[in-house]
Amino acid sequence: MIKFSVFKRWWSQKRHLSMASLPTHTTQCPCCGLESVVPQMSQGESANCPQCGQLLVKINRNPYTAPLAFVSAAWILMLLVGSQVYLNMDMIGVSEHLSVIDIFQNLKHHEYGFLATVMLLLVFFTPVLFMSMYMYVHIALYRQHYLPGTNLCARHMIRLRPWLMVDVFFVATLVALVKIAAVSDFTVGPAFGFVFVYALFLIHMGINIHPHWLFYQLSQLQPDAQPLCISQHKPNTLYCTRCLHAQNHTDNECDVCGAFLYHRIPNSIQKSLALLITAMILFIPANTFIMMSTDSLLSSAQSNIFDGVLILWKEKDHLVAVIVFIASILIPVVKILMLMILLYSARFQLLLPPKVLNKMYHFVEFIGRWSMIDIFVIILLMAVYRTNIASVTPGMASVYFTLVIFATMLSAEVLDLRLIWDRYHQQQRAKKHASHRP
């Protein structure tokens, strides 16, 4: 048996070494574009932008050992989730034992390829890819040895964070169980608890990735590593949008993380607007076409999103009705309206103070993925009700609604928030210039 003192020494290994620190240097906020000096930092310390409050850099208290411990535990939990029973159902003498893999196979068997692909990507493939890259990068950090493709893995690992939807799937399960409890008996299996812990571990790993510190550490592992030091302000200095480190304005590629360099995201407003218009167009069939068809021995019903909310409310499932309304109607509408405000402010004139717009943007980023609750609920109900007694069939609206979610998430992702602050500073200069006129 491993003694606690031995475990404590292993957990603390490399915890207080000076190589985890950051020297004094300049960086630029990825949200407002303010250039500021970051003082020397060590483990457990963080620095925020003085203008908008955005977190610029943070060094975790245990940046080498803890990530490997969490990702190793996450791999074990993922295997347990896939091998154990998720739900046990009993409906009029018909028993069903479902694992998460069974839910996916049921979609594939009934030739609902789009929903099967969505579930496979967001609940299986994306987390597996994220954990693989996360482990690869942190093995390099732990061993203090640069591995081929580490920067590439780190960049894609950061991009995958919004698309980890195991937590959304778990919440969707809770919503579906309220509906299932009304017509059948159920018990949760071991995988139900494992999914909850697995989701928490993925959330923890995602929020504890800090690109500025991470890419600096990886750059120092390379043979030709350059020391990071404070630099004088230069008008043409470029700051990488991925790692936030200063670069020569003539360079096309960041020598710290390997990302492409640009002053502002090229055609950011145009790309974001195109995706938003796409989402608005797709939102029409998503709300008018059939979302779900329910067939049983006693009745048969087809409903779109709004009809489904009304049916749930009339059946006294008030909590589920409110959740579905918020996730399927309110959140998409709020996202579209907020993105319209952000785009108008970036292109023409600020409709709100820049700090409010900054918070609005981060709110849109946060809520974007939670609209997938309705899609996961349909997938779960379809997996449960697939007998001769009752069955649930997804409609075409589920495809359009999923595309709406993806389009709004991408629209927010490609929008360069610094354009709003550029517009704010431009308006401030115009006001100042006008006040000095005779």
TrEMBL record:
Keyword presence, Membrane: yes
UniProt keyword terms in alphabetical order: Cell inner membrane, Cell membrane, Membrane, Transmembrane, Transmembrane helix
Transmembrane regions listed in the UniProt entry: 68-87, 114-142, 163-182, 188-207, 273-292, 319-345, 366-385, 397-421
InterPro entries: PqiA-like (IPR007498), PqiA-PqiB_transport (IPR051800)
Keyword Transmembrane attributed: yes
Domain of life: Bacteria
Subcellular location: Cell inner membrane
Main location: membrane
Protein name: Paraquat-inducible protein A
Lineage: Bacteria, Pseudomonadati, Pseudomonadota, Betaproteobacteria, Neisseriales
